Amino acid sequence: MKSVMQALAASLLLVVGCAESMPQPRAPTSRALEALRVPWTFEIQDKERRPIAILSVRFTDAKASSCIGDNWKLLDSLSFESLGKPEFPGRDVLSYQVDGDKLIIGRNDFCDDYYRLSGELTPSGLTGEYYAFGFGPHSYQQLGYVIGKPSK
């Protein structure tokens, strides 16, 4: 019993230590907030930069549920077309977060099975990456790229 309690205490210390060392998201910049006032269309690409999906969304202020906390908001999916693999879960509930000028879009309510689009947000567009991650230290996997533009 003593070894179980020691293992539990060590695990708790590890989790608390990791949570405290995680960087906190920065407040969205005014440039980022202005860019999100209109719908956007994202082309998701594989590692060879071939299109694998087209996703059109509207950004909302509604709070989204997330297994990993933070300030996630719901995306209103306007359209989604899957064109190939690796597939993006564009028909699932998606949410977004803005960290300074960085936009992060993802499926966040399936715990330990996250798919993300992430890149620097400007009023004229976004370029970034498409990746997945889950539980474990080596779980990050880049799946491709993303390009986004306002679809005024």
Description:
This protein is an alpha+beta fold and 152 residues long. It has one domain (26-150): Beta Barrel (Lipocalin), CATH 2.40.128. It is built from two helices and eight strands, in the order ααββββββββ. It has helices at 2-21, 30-35, and strands spanning 40-46, 51-63, 73-82, 95-99, 102-107, 113-122, 125-134, 141-150. Strands 1-2-3-4-5-6-7-8 form an eight-stranded antiparallel β-barrel. Strand 4 (95-99) and strand 5 form a beta hairpin. The termini are far apart. The model is unreliable at 7-20 (pLDDT under 50).
Total beta-strand segments: 8
CATH architecture term: Beta Barrel
Residue windows where pLDDT falls under 50 for at least 5 positions: 7-20
Q: Could you say how many structural domains there are in total?
A: 1
Query: Shape from CA axes?
Result: globular
Percentage of residues assigned to helices: 10-25%
Average of the residue pLDDT scores: 84
Strand order of the largest sheet: 1-2-3-4-5-6-7-8
Sum up the structure in keywords:
eight-stranded antiparallel barrel, 2 helices, Lipocalin, 152 residues, single chain, alpha+beta, 17% helix
Helix/strand layout:
Blueprint: H1 2-21, H2 30-35, E1 40-46, E2 51-63, E3 73-82, E4 95-99, E5 102-107, E6 113-122, E7 125-134, E8 141-150
Antiparallel strand pairs: 1-2, 1-8, 2-3, 3-4, 4-5, 5-6, 6-7, 7-8
What's this model, at a glance?
The protein has 152 residues and is of the alpha+beta class.
